[in-house]
Write a structure and sequence with these properties.
This protein has a two-stranded antiparallel sheet. The chain folds into two domains: about 70 residues, Arc Repressor Mutant, subunit A; about 170 residues, Four Helix Bundle (Hemerythrin (Met), subunit A), CATH 1.20.120.530. It is globular. The C terminus is likely disordered. With about 260 residues, the chain is mostly helical. The chain has eleven helices and four strands; from the N terminus they run H-H-H-E-E-H-H-H-H-H-H-H-H-E-E. The longest helix is centred in the last third of the chain and has 29 residues. Helix content is about 65%, strand content about 5%.
Length: about 260
């Protein structure tokens, strides 16, 4: 493995990033065993405490599986699968369509469950997140951190561990796409408005309305991301991209322009 010496301040985060990069490059695969803690400490030239912190973080993200008395292994999980996909794949139109198709199946169901199961504390937390998102937007920021947090807390409020894992994996893999989308003029405010619609449905405990609000929110994001991708492709002087129909009937078919 080509491991590098750690130089930055937040040491464990750099270790996490390197392990994720090795998974993405295919140099670490599900089932592979990591070197012992002491060996990693010497290779990275960091303390064993930093190595332990990184391993705990990677375990909580679903990338590692520690077996008592045996060692630490790369996990066979959704997170590992998505991390192993080349980053260039997330810029391909056909792959983005599949990701949004998955999101439109998963996240409306999460919103509906949250409307049924969210506690007053979780609803208050969602309200606080949207206040923070509004503040960030008012100050000229994209609000991307609050945007990501809103979707994560919503998944937690659904109280389904499997859906939470799947949602976290997809949300994390789309971080770069979300940041680029929110840099589009007017998009941060529209994103906030969509979140408020979802939250209002959860506040009144209406799962049908929450599901519909989330679906509308995702379709608006999908339209923006695909439009942005066309514009970027034109700027790069690429060929004519496929024209994608994204309507109320959810026709995801493509045809050449």
């Amino acid at each position: 493995m080509n491991l590098k010496i750690i130089k930055k301040t937040r040491v464990y985060e750099d270790i996490v990033a390197q392990v994720k990069d090795l998974i993405a490059d295919g140099k670490l695969r599900p089932g592979d065993q990591l070197p012992p803690e002491r060996e990693l400490s010497e290779t990275f030239q960091v303390s064993r405490a930093s190595v332990r912190e990184a391993i705990r973080a990677l375990e909580s993200m679903g990338f590692l599986d520690t077996k008592q008395g045996e060692g630490t292994y790369i996990a066979s999980s959704v997170e590992t699968l998505l991390a192993s996909l080349p980053s260039t794949l997330f810029h391909r139109r056909d792959f983005l369509l599949q990701v949004f198709e998955a999101r439109k199946i998963l996240e409306p169901a999460i919103a509906a469950l949250a409307a049924e199961r969210a506690t007053p504390e979780e609803i208050a937390q969602l309200e606080t997140i949207l206040k923070e998102q509004a503040r960030q937007i008012t100050e000229g920021e994209t609000g991307v951190e609050a945007d990501t947090r809103f979707h994560s807390v919503l998944a937690e409020a659904a109280k389904n561990g499997v859906l939470l894992k799947l949602n976290d994996a997809i949300v994390d893999s789309l971080r770069e796409t979300r940041e680029r989308s929110l840099q589009t003029r007017g998009r941060p405010a529209r994103s906030l408005a969509g979140h408020r619609e979802i939250l209002q449905a959860i506040q009144i405990g209406n799962p049908t309305r929450a599901k519909e609000a989330m679906r509308n929110h995702l379709e608006a994001i999908e339209h923006n991301v695909l439009k942005l991708q066309v514009e970027e492709q034109k700027e790069r002087g690429g060929g004519a991209p496929a024209v994608v129909s994204v309507g109320a009937d959810d026709d995801l078919s493509t045809k050449e322009a």
